[in-house]
Predict the 3D structure of the following.
Amino acid sequence: MDVIQIPHDTNRLVLHFDTALLQINAYALASSLVGLANAIKEANSIVNPGYAVEVVVERLEDGSFRATLKAVVKKAGNIFSHELSKAIIYGIIATWIYDQTLGADKEPIIIINDESVEIRSGERIIIVPREVYDAKKEVERSERFQSSMSQVFNGALKDPAVTGLKITPPGEWPGLPSVPREQFVLIASRYEADDANAIYEDAVLEISRAIMSRGRRKWEFYWRGVKISAPVLDHAFYEAFSAHDITIAPGDMLRVVLKIYRKTDPESGIHVNTKYEVVEVQNHIPREVQGSFETSA
């Protein structure tokens, strides 16, 4: 029986593309890397509130084609946490992938212990730290996480030479199986959102009207000289506000990840923005320090 142990602490992930070639389609690589980076950022915002994460590609390797990514976690400016950040993002992503693939034919057996969770399917047992499993259940409720992971597999589909894909910690992990290509579409389509043309963009928004109750009521902002309306969906931001770690006033700015929904004009082929959502608040910039912010940008 194969026993796979998911590690608890690591801040590096290796994305493996199974291919016989020493090259990979650039669009496949870029799309999968962007999807994985967005999934890491979303998972981090949920399990490490008050900490921002930068995802960098450290190196590319042959063999199966591999990209090593490092998540650099640091306190997020004016929004802060009193707790240390947890290096459990790899475990969350790996456990999510196993959940998707192990349950394809038959519902796996879940055994919950005090310190770990066993996921049993056929001749395979996945042992996951309890903290990682509980965090995974919280993260997988995020639409952004689901659609970002979907993009990882959608991207791999762009290269017909890729026969499998897996995400491991650094080093050699011969027991960790790849997801076969025939399951790429299944995973990708399962979480394919209606907003297929939506994009995520780092943005600095000036607050015109704030809504300090949780929900989907829309704030008003100025962005690039244009007034837009968008709900703020970052739970950590509201928790920081409730704890009086930050105060909000008109004219303050927020550095955010902005989700932009688009549709294509059938005549011109031009993408038109239809609505906006603030999915992550990375920094709060009070009005009185805006001058120094703009000088250093």
User: Anything to note?
Assistant: Helices lie at 26-47, 89-102, 130-139, 143-156, 184-190, 235-242, 290-296. The chain is about 30% helix and 35% strand.
